[in-house]
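FIELD: query
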Amino acid sequence: MSNHTVHFDSKLPNIQTNIFSIMSQLANRHNAINLSQGFPNFPSDPVLSDLVSEAMAAGYNQYAPMPGVQELREVISEKIASLHQYNYHPETEITVTAGASQAIYTIISAFISKGDEVIILKPAYDCYEPAIELQGGTPVLVQLRPNFTVNWKEVAEKINSKTKMIIINTPHNPSGAILSKKDMLTLEKLLKGTDIILLSDEVYEHIIFDGEQHQSASRFPGLAERAFVCASFGKTFHNTGWKMGYCAAPSYLMNEYRKVHQFNVFCVSHPKQVAFATYLKNPEHYSNLGAFYQEKRDYFLKLIKGSRFTFTPAKGTYFQLLNYADITNEADTGFAARLTKEKKIASIPISVFNINDEDNKVLRFCFAKTNETLEQAAEILCSI
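FIELD: result
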């Protein structure tokens, strides 16, 4: 048997197992309540599951069209037009994807080359930077203010001739903050006359609270003309394991995207696409999500009101940040691990998403859980 080991240079030498996997594994090992990884612990709508089964029984089990089932792209186009008053052509400007992460990776792969710079607002979801680095690009990081608002002056100072793309995320993971209309108008003005592509990660588009309105890049002509908007059916319809989503962009950008998409996944689950094409025709299936999750947010915060944690209610997503500075000076990574092992509740430390691992003593908790789970979690948090 050969003892030879192949030597190679890692393309991602500094990347380890991501924090979501680490904390979920730790939660499983210690039988802890898992409020770390962002997934609901309740089922998706049985109507949707039945539609998938019916599509399978009807024979939709072979390859779907590369850009997605036409009927589904049409209903997505109609949904965006209804919500944001922007018309994407279903034939040339919408592609169904294996979740938003695949869309994001493919967008970056299609447009970022060696030497290109991509501006990212930190804390940021952890799939952006590795994808950029794999293409030879350089992430240019801008830290959000302590209240998770954007310093647009600092963003403007980072833009130069090498800037190829800016990535935004609203509603924002991990903070639960949202970008305002003023933010989007400022960004629109900032990008005017440039060749900078905007990647707008809007996977929590329907989960927004307190009467606020989602400010999609699609709403702003000067952004829509240069933007990829990425969305997730998994986040919206409580089935993250299905890995289904889509992206929308002007045809001149989408044409380039599909050149890569066809060699990446080619197409995604055919029966699920057929099911979503029917399911999305009823706007009530997504229009009530904000109220649904706001009720869970409010219930969770009411339950922990007497705890030593402090918080500002999330404006969107199904994540709530809790500040523990009044409890301990431990690093957030250490405190999160200790809570999982000793108190049997798992969360996500925010420092891992910040520039230089800046630690503000904040943990992220997912409240997309049954009331019973939230009650059990709150009992633990109030005992700390």
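FIELD: remark
The longest strand covers residues 163-169.
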